[in-house]
Amino acid sequence: MRGGPGDAERRQRWGRLFEELDSNKDGRVDVRELRQGLARLGGGDPDRDTQQGISSEGDADPGGGLDLEEFSRYLQEREQRLLLLFHSLDRNQDGHIDVSEIQQSFRALGISISLEQAEKILHSMDRDGTMTIDWQEWRDHFLLHSLENVEDVVYFWKHSTVLDIGECLTVPDEFSEQEKLTGMWWKQLVAGAVAGAVSRTGTAPLDRLKVFMQVHASKTNKLNILGGLKSMIREGGMRSLWRGNGINVLKIAPESAIKFMAYEQIKRAIRGQQETLHVQERFVAGSLAGATAQTIIYPMEVLKTRLTLRRTGQYKGLLDCAWQILEREGPRAFYRGYLPNVLGIIPYAGIDLAVYETLKNRWLQQYSRDSADPGILVLLACGTISSTCGQIASYPLALVRTRMQAQASIEGAPQLSMLGLLRHILSQEGVWGLYRGIAPNFMKVIPAVSISYVVYENMKQALGVTSR
């Protein structure tokens, strides 16, 4: 707390605020006094962060509020966070936020607000009538009041990290500057990886059935969901339903880490040091990051398909499978189906992002009153709908990828290129042939989303990820 004149001025200002809020003059400020004080000052209720900070931040007596020293320490941390956010919104770095910068900040997250709405936000903070907000006005408005802003939208509307439906082609979530500084971002990624592992294990039988039908179902054998399950159990027993799940779980960590690091680097190259991107820029950065991750871990995708489709006793394990592929087919076999896989990122990521941003924008416009928090059901519904739409768009390419990965291991199967395989499927089975296995894929979406969300929330608590 020691320092130059600026520190002394801050301490005096905090002291005056403390005296004004400490209505019973007992040397402590509690949540009740804070609420009463804000009402006198013409403000609304304090946000949850402030209430939690006043009742427990560095407080030796959690039920008794904060004394002056604890109150000052809390406000110092709060001001640091507000300053970071002020700089992220002040896009031309002139020390003032104007109407256009407010609109840009919301547009960067796909939230369209009118000029009138932006002016209303600015008027609520602009005390000197300049139609701009300087740091002092921003600080004084948000120091104890609710902080409904871009950072809250970023925090509450994550879905790539939270929900796992077995595909890693979504655009990565944004993390706020505060989450990066406190280290919460990596804890959220770890929580997401564990949630994905549990979710994929829980829905592995449906995932194996999907792959089985993608490769083996046709007009002639009329293989359906029940027939596919019976065939797999008859060949290898109940345990065979989890074939390929081990490597499917194993690839979550490297793929998530590579994609996150690539996304941050590509984002920085596109927008310099800006923290948020426009939706179109997020799509480009996310697609390139996804392509980078897929390029590096793609051999694991091939191994997953081969292990999923293996017959009993065909391979001794992961390493034996890799060795047999290398010995019989050469290193190029580990990149069979790579082209349709990378091309599939574009429709999946594009449609998933567009649908999610549209649903998010609609909710924020119509229902957001006191918080950007959509609640569990809205978040799950938006994430499930957008991911399902992305899957439908990219599914034909995913089917072609899986068949190309598997065709060398199937006796008598023609070794076709991507276009050759597309023509073969369309001529033999029609358009519906490109959607073989989509029924079990849809069946696993709701349980996968539900499992991943529940596990994610529990992992967040276990890792100490703070909630707003």
Automatic annotation (TrEMBL):
Region annotation Disordered: where it falls in the sequence: 37-67
Domain of life: Eukaryota
Pfam families, A to Z: EF-hand_7 (PF13499), Mito_carr (PF00153)
Solcar repeats: 183-269, 277-362, 374-462
Membrane-crossing segments per the record: none
Name of the protein in its database record: Mitochondrial adenyl nucleotide antiporter SLC25A23
Subunit structure, interactors included: Interacts with MCU. Interacts with MICU1.
Catalyzed reactions per annotation: phosphate(in) + ATP(out) + 2 H(+)(out) = phosphate(out) + ATP(in) + 2 H(+)(in); dAMP(out) + phosphate(in) = dAMP(in) + phosphate(out); AMP(out) + phosphate(in) = AMP(in) + phosphate(out); 3'-AMP(out) + phosphate(in) = 3'-AMP(in) + phosphate(out)
PANTHER family cross-referenced by the UniProt entry: SOLUTE CARRIER FAMILY 25
A GO biological process held by the record: adenine nucleotide transport
Classification via InterPro entries: EF-hand-dom_pair (IPR011992), EF_Hand_1_Ca_BS (IPR018247), EF_hand_dom (IPR002048), MCP (IPR002067), MCP_dom_sf (IPR023395), MCP_transmembrane (IPR018108)
Membrane-topology annotation of the record: Multi-pass membrane protein
A molecular-function term among this protein's GO annotations: calcium ion binding
Subcellular location: Mitochondrion inner membrane
Record-annotated EF-hand domain positions: 9-44, 77-112, 113-148
A GO-annotated cellular component: mitochondrial inner membrane
PROSITE patterns: EF_HAND_1 (PS00018), EF_HAND_2 (PS50222), SOLCAR (PS50920)
Keyword Repeat carried by entry: yes
Family affiliation: Belongs to the mitochondrial carrier (TC 2.A.29) family.
Gene this chain is encoded by: SLC25A23
Function: Electroneutral antiporter that mediates the transport of adenine nucleotides through the inner mitochondrial membrane. Originally identified as an ATP-magnesium/inorganic phosphate antiporter, it also acts as a broad specificity adenyl nucleotide antiporter. By regulating the mitochondrial matrix adenine nucleotide pool could adapt to changing cellular energetic demands and indirectly regulate adenine nucleotide-dependent metabolic pathways. Also acts as a regulator of mitochondrial calcium uptake and can probably transport trace amounts of other divalent metal cations in complex with ATP.
Major subcellular site: mitochondrion
UniProt keyword terms in alphabetical order: Antiport, Calcium, Membrane, Metal-binding, Mitochondrion, Mitochondrion inner membrane, Repeat, Transmembrane, Transmembrane helix, Transport
